[in-house]
UniProtKB/TrEMBL annotation:
Belongs to the PPR family. PCMP-H subfamily. The keyword Repeat applies. This is DYW domain-containing protein. Keywords: Repeat. Coiled coil: none annotated. The lineage of its organism: Eukaryota, Viridiplantae, Streptophyta, Embryophyta, Tracheophyta. One of its GO terms (biological process) is RNA modification. The keyword Transit peptide does not apply. Gene3D superfamilies: Tetratricopeptide repeat domain. Residues 913-1005 form the DYW domain. It comes from the Eukaryota. GO terms for molecular function: RNA binding; zinc ion binding.
């Protein structure tokens, strides 16, 4: 321990920065919220700023490979030579391929042409061109390719020289009818291009889903120097969103602004759609709000973006705005909003949308019904979901499965009925329905129901299906029917990783986990190559087994499978080694990993924190940040826990500032860890300030502050907090009561404690755990009510553990009860012969009575059992560096100054009338030796050092690994008065705040 602490050197400027850390707590009020994601605020207003610098040349960056490989022009055989050499033989009189049911447009073409010929009207060339263009436009709008071809044929046969209008109409008709090769050939044939012909071609490709080609064509067009119009831009944006090229999309956005098309409704909607589909909701929102006019398309684009992000709240907010703006609401909007309600579990809004659907008359729409079903089932309204389901005319297997799994999740018995109905309706269950039913049974933990489905599965012949088999294995394993699970597994014909995983999941329990090595070797024998997920699962079991030997074997296989560099497997390995207390092996694996994400870092940091190496944990933490990995709440909390264990306040404060920087202060998990850290480091004011600054508090946070108050002997505040907790509607749990009871015990409030103990059982229905009983025994024992203690232990329903007897022994020492003490010690020697404190306490009891023979006997017993007494040790943090002192220590570099200071303090103590309590020296030595022995107790060395090396107004915080002795307690009280310093000592049981000659424990400890 000593070496550990001496190596702790922190370079954090704790003094000067302290002011920065601490006062922030009261500042964290809603009015001064720290941004959760500061980077989003700093993100430049990209497209808007880019406008200045954007030039058309910017678009040339994306140089297309033209023609692209997206669309293979391999249909060349049907396209002989040049288009206008007459690529189809067009008969003068058009045959009627479709029969008497002529399409209206065809009739128009024929009759129109016939009339003209019959009437002998000779059209001048201009009229002729216009007429052909008109025909082609009509064909394009109807999507009739054959008629378009026919018109094209007439143009060729009649030897018409097309003007630019007709050329465009030709490109357009092929593009609109999906005949992209022809469109492209006509386009290539054109003597002159313009923006309209380009747009016609591009939109043809984009409409057919060839976004990449659309993007390439757009770039080519820009390179050729054509300025896009709003239609081109809309098409280009659509193309960008199709192939998610956000960068180009932003350049197009700049063009939109340049050509002044920004206020165009269609362009605006396309922009919103592009950003929403790319997940850039902030930009989408900004464009949307700038649009002077909005339609259903733009609203839906934005809504869909939020739906994609799963942001139900935002969807609902937006929908409210939409209804206020009196926008017409279509079924797609409603379905999107329902998705939002389902994701955020917002039933009330969902019901409102439902009523809107009824009002709009689209309730019975199949598409919307499925969304309604989904919403009700996710909001836990199985009955409402069932009603919707009943109205679906012809439910398909998807709706059936959705309904069945919804009922399964809610534990409704109709599920089986529905299943029967489904079979009745002639819908044959498929493997998905069946495996979803099995999963439902698994989640319900209903084995008999699961078995009945298993019977169905055999009847329908699905037992050989891989997904059904996997679901069955998982169900049997999870419900504890390991043998049945193994049987299904053995019978499966094709096993995959999921099957092995399902099988192994049954062996996590203590009794069965020794099967792991056997199953693993069977897997190897069967030649099954494990993948990273399976290794992860296996390693997890090793850490729960603490079977490092097996873990190392698995590690060897991982290396053999060349998965050692995989960060996922690597993290599992590190975790396994760290949990098995092989931190050095963990570090080796960690250092070899190339890619380390936040989980990997968290695992190694937790490893350090749990082995009381807070300084290394914090160092690791800063390195992680330097490497650009953002910590999550678990990283921060586990680091903070490390600091609270050994009370390194400077490290904790540094972490506090990191928490603020990371914007994680609102996280309950992190906040609790912070409160706990300050509490354990003796800074109760800071713990309190953080607690009070939080807007919402959960049970864990309340428990933390209650326990902090209890440890600091602020019983009044602990009880008050437990009352406020109830006032705020937070339910207490068993930990809350441990806090409350230990507060009562520290304060010596026996009646209050008994009252709370009864509340625990009778009002909250919590079965008292051994910790609660320990608190009660402690409470009675401290007050010296040994008869009651004995009765209590006899009457309590649990078998007394070591912690109970240890508490009894402590109380016996406090009151000098030799007889009961001996009995308690005997129990302890039986239960935990290796625990040093029981021998020490017993010998202390004998020593207090001067029974030195018995003391020697206990010491002999102790050395016979080769138990060593943990040396008393205290530590104090000065200038962010931890200094450790053992009792009678003389190794500190400043030991001379420390002894001089102790000498000076001794004289002051004597003149203040202090007489040392010799009975606290537990060795059979002379009084002079006893006095010296007392004077060199570790906490006094720590105090003297702190006095000579810190600012005279600073509170001194000392931490001790054992209980403070009665004499040191007296001395600290007197010294706090003489030196006018506040001294806080954390011993193994609680905190003592010494100030102006008194202690916060009121000498009751
Ligand atoms: Zn002492
Ligand atoms: Zn005290």
């Amino acid at each position: 321990m000593e070496c550990d602490f001496f190596s702790l050197k922190m370079h954090s400027p704790s003094h000067s920065l302290r002011g920065l850390f601490l006062p922030v707590c009261p500042l964290i009020t809603p009015s001064v919220q720290f941004p959760k994601k500061p980077h989003t605020l700093l993100r430049p207003l990209l497209p808007f700023i880019q406008l200045k610098s954007s030039s058309c040349a910017a678009l040339d960056i994306v140089e297309p490979n033209y023609p692209t490989s997206d669309l293979a022009f391999n249909n060349t055989r049907s396209l002989p030579g040049r288009v206008h050499d007459g690529f189809w033989k067009i008969p003068r009189k058009l045959p009627n391929p479709i029969g008497p049911n002529l399409l209206p447009s065809r009739r128009i073409i024929e009759t129109d042409a016939k009339c003209r010929i019959e009437r002998g009207v000779s059209l001048n060339s201009k009229e002729m061109l216009r007429w052909y263009s008109g025909m082609l436009r009509m064909c394009a709008s109807k999507g009739s390719l054959n008629e378009g071809k026919a018109v094209h044929g007439q143009v060729i046969i009649n030897g018409v020289e097309p003007d630019s209008h007709l050329w465009i109409s030709l490109v357009n008709v092929y593009a609109k009818c999906g005949s992209l090769e022809c469109a492209r050939r006509v386009f290539d044939e054109m003597p002159e291009w313009n923006v309209v012909s380009w747009t016609a071609l591009i939109s043809g490709f984009v409409d057919e889903g060839y976004g990449r080609v659309g993007v390439d064509l757009f770039c080519k067009m820009r390179k050729e120097g054509f300025r896009p119009n709003e239609f081109t831009l809309t098409t280009a944006l659509k193309a960008c969103s199709m192939c998610s090229t956000l960068d180009l999309g932003k350049q197009v956005h700049a063009e939109v602004i340049k050509v002044g098309a920004f206020s165009d409704l269609i362009v605006g909607s396309a922009l919103v759609d592009l950003y929403a589909k790319s997940g850039e909701m902030e930009l989408a929102r900004r464009v949307f709000s700038c649009m002077p006019e909005k339609n259903a398309v733009s609203w839906n684009a934005l809504l869909n973006g939020y739906a994609q992000m799963g942001d139900g709240k935002e969807i609902l907010k937006l929908f409210c705005e939409m209804t206020v703006s009196e926008m017409k609401i279509c079924k797609f909007t409603l379905s999107t909003v329902l998705k939002g309600c389902a994701n955020s579990g917002n039933l009330r809004e969902g019901q409102a949308v439902h009523s809107l659907a009824i009002r709009n008359g689209c309730e019975l729409d199949e598409f919307l019904s499925c969304s309604l079903l989904d919403m009700y089932s996710k909001c836990g309204m199985a009955d409402a979901a069932l009603k919707v389901f009943g109205r679906i005319k012809d439910p398909d297997i998807v709706s059936w499965s959705a309904m069945i799994s919804c009922l399964g999740q809610q534990g409704k018995s109709q599920e089986a009925e529905l299943f029967h109905l489904m079979r009745h309706a002639g819908v044959r269950p498929n493997q998905f329905t069946l495996s979803s039913l099995v999963s439902a049974a698994t989640d319900l933990g209903d084995l008999s129901y699961g078995e009945s489905i298993h019977a169905f599965i055999c009847k329908f012949g699905f037992e050989s299906d891989n997904s059904v088999g996997n679901a069955l294995v998982r169900m049997y394993m999870k419900t504890g029917s390991v043998r049945d699970g193994c049987r299904v597994f053995e019978a499966m014909s094709d096993r995959d990783v999921v099957s092995w995983n399902a099988l192994l999941s049954g062996f996590h329990e203590k009794e069965t986990c020794n099967q792991w090595p056997r199953i693993f070797s069977q897997m190897l024998v069967e030649g099954f190559k494990s993948n990273m997920y399976l290794f992860d699962s296996i390693l997890r079991s090793c850490s729960s087994l603490s079977n490092v030997g097996f873990g190392k074997q698995v590690h060897a296989h991982i290396v053999k499978n060349s998965l050692a560099g995989n960060d996922f497997v690597g993290t599992a390995l590190i975790d396994m080694y760290a949990k098995s207390n092989c931190l050095e092996d963990a570090v080796v694996v960690f250092n070899r990993l190339i890619e380390r994400d936040v989980f990997t870092w968290t695992v190694i940091i937790t490893g350090y924190a749990q082995t009381d190496q807070a300084e290394k944990a914090v160092k690791c933490f800063s390195q992680m940040q330097r490497e650009g990995v953002t910590p999550n709440e678990f990283t921060l909390a586990s680091c903070l826990n490390g600091c609270s264990h050994i009370a390194t306040l400077a490290n904790g404060q540094q972490l506090h500032s990191m928490v603020i920087k990371a914007g994680q202060l609102g996280d309950m998990f992190v906040a609790s860890a912070l409160v706990d850290m300050y509490g354990k480091c003796g800074c109760i004011e800071d713990a309190e300030a953080i607690f009070k600054s939080l807007v919402s508090r959960d049970t864990i946070l309340w428990n933390t502050i209650i326990c902090v108050y209890a440890q600091h002997g602020q019983g009044e505040k602990a009880l008050e907090a437990s009352r406020s907790m109830l006032d705020e509607g937070t339910m207490p749990d068993e930990i809350t009561f441990i806090g409350v009871l230990s507060a009562c015990s520290h304060m010596g409030w026996i009646e209050e404690g008994k009252k709370h103990f009864n509340l625990l059982r009778n009002i909250y229905g919590i079965a008292p755990t051994i910790q609660h009983h320990t608190c009660m025994v402690d409470m009675l024992g401290r007050a010296g009510r040994f008869d009651e203690v004995e009765r209590y232990i006899e009457e309590m329903k649990l078998i007394p553990t070591a912690s109970i007897w240890e508490t009894v022994l402590g109380a016996c020492k406090l009151h000098g009860n030799v007889e009961f003490g001996e009995r308690a010690a005997d129990k302890l020697f039986e239960l935990v012969p290796e625990m040093d404190s029981s021998y020490v306490l017993l010998s202390n009891i004998f020593a207090l009575k001067g029974r030195w023979d018995d003391v020697r006997k206990v010491r002999t017993l102790m050395s016979d059992q080769s138990v060593k007494k943990e040396p008393g040790c205290s530590w104090v943090e000065v200038d962010a560096q931890v200094h450790v002192f053992l009792s009678q220590d003389s190794s500190h570099p400043k030991i001379r100054d420390i002894y001089l200071k102790l000498e000076e303090l001794g004289q002051k103590l004597t003149s203040a009338g202090y007489i040392p309590k010799m009975e606290h020296v537990l060795h059979d030595v002379t009084d002079k030796e006893k006095k010296e022995n007392l004077f060199h107790h570790s906490e006094r060395l720590a105090l003297a050092f702190a006095l000579i090396s810190t600012n005279p107004r600073k509170t001194i915080r000392i931490y001790k690994n054992l209980r403070i002795c009665g004499d040191c307690h007296d001395v600290m009280k007197v010294l706090s008065d003489i030196t006018n310093r506040e001294i806080v000592i954390r011993d193994i049981k609680r905190f003592h705040h010494f100030k102006n000659g008194t202690c916060s424990c009121q000498d009751y400890w």
